[in-house]
Amino acid sequence: MKNSKLFIQSPFPYFPGTNLSAHIKKAGTAILLCALLSAPGLSLAQKEPEVTLAPDVVSFQVDQLNDFHEGYAIIKRGTASSLIDAKGNTIIPFGKYQLESTDLTEGFLNGYCIVRDAKTGLAGYVNNTGKLVVNCLYGSATPFDKEGYAVVSDKNNANLFFISRDGKTTPFPKVFFYTKKAIAPTVALTEANGVTKSLFKAKDPRDGMPSILPDFSEGMAAGKEDDQFGYYNRLGKKIIANKYENAQPFSDGLAAVAYKNQYGEVKWGFIDKAGNPVVDYKYSLQPGDFHNGFAVVYPADKTQFQYAFINKKGDVFYQVKDKGKNDHKDFQEGFAFVANKGNLDLLDASGMLNELTINTNTTDKKGNPVLIKSFDYANIIDNGNIMVSKSGKHGIINTKGNIVIPIEFESLSYYDPVAKLAKATYKVKAKKGTEIIEGYVNASGTFIMVRQVTKSQW
Q1: Model's pTM, two decimal places?
Q2: Out of 49, 164, 231, 310, which could bridge 220 as a Cys pair, Cβ 3.0 to 4.6 Å?
């Protein structure tokens, strides 16, 4: 039997607490034959978009499903957690470790996942086979970055260290503990008891303030000495002199820095990895980072335009005059979202502006393609995918406007390109009101795994 159709007005709704596979077999082809919804002006080829449930769907009796990352997801039941792969197979069983999945840790990231020993509560790391590759010795831990390093503390959360993937540690340099005049800390870590707190106080006689976790890129991160920023390697060795009022991470080989000129004005510009100015210090407002060869900059006076993109020579590439709905203005995978008369367009690296529309793969009575032009979106392009919403429903399209996941879900989160799955919820009509299906859907909108809700009679 092919995938069983589940429509919003299906007379055979999904009932929480039942065995889903048995439910599908019992419903059989009746679900396939349930009434199709139609709308005025649509041809017979334009059936209401449908969401399907795989006949071999995997169900989990759990309290929480987390997003897939790099092909793996953490599921939780009570305080216990387990790691599964994209087919629902168990990689780490419940009770072996406590797996961390928060806004900061995200589960698997750059090949590793933070785990805690069930007895000691101390943190370590596992790889994608579930093997413990860094022993559980640390009070707190961050995910490994793309360069293969993480930040951990000793078991008493008194000292910080950089740790490499082979488990070797080096002391966390003092230059990354900013003074009280620095920006307030924005990064926190989850401790053994599950409470998220700010980074620990450094044993630094100068200030004792916590640090902003350094964002290393191309082997360097901004650090501070004598109230001025410079760039250092992980050992704390100075690479670029401390002479900036503020400094951002390197991206595309350049970094945005704020420099005080001879008139006492603080202006932003860009430097290269040798510390040489590449784009003049002329911006009063902090610019964005370079991505795909372009960076967003903002005028102090927005009467003529709202923001602009510059190239690595500092030349203006494109000006955006309209106020946009989006707050993500960086180039992503060769495109940037821009506002154009209230609509959302995609600007490419050649300067071509294309209206972002959704191809519904349907036609009107005259045979013309039906396109959606007005919609909300998540302003993120990830592996060519864009999350969009229309009339309260969510789905995913690609940069060409083709639907990747049908725009039919009550909620939809990160689409993992490795697992090719996204966590979603879908509403179906039941005997008493509506019920919500929660699980993981593939690119066709089919539920591959679902969370089975159980209710105790007590």
Answers
A1: 0.77
A2: 231
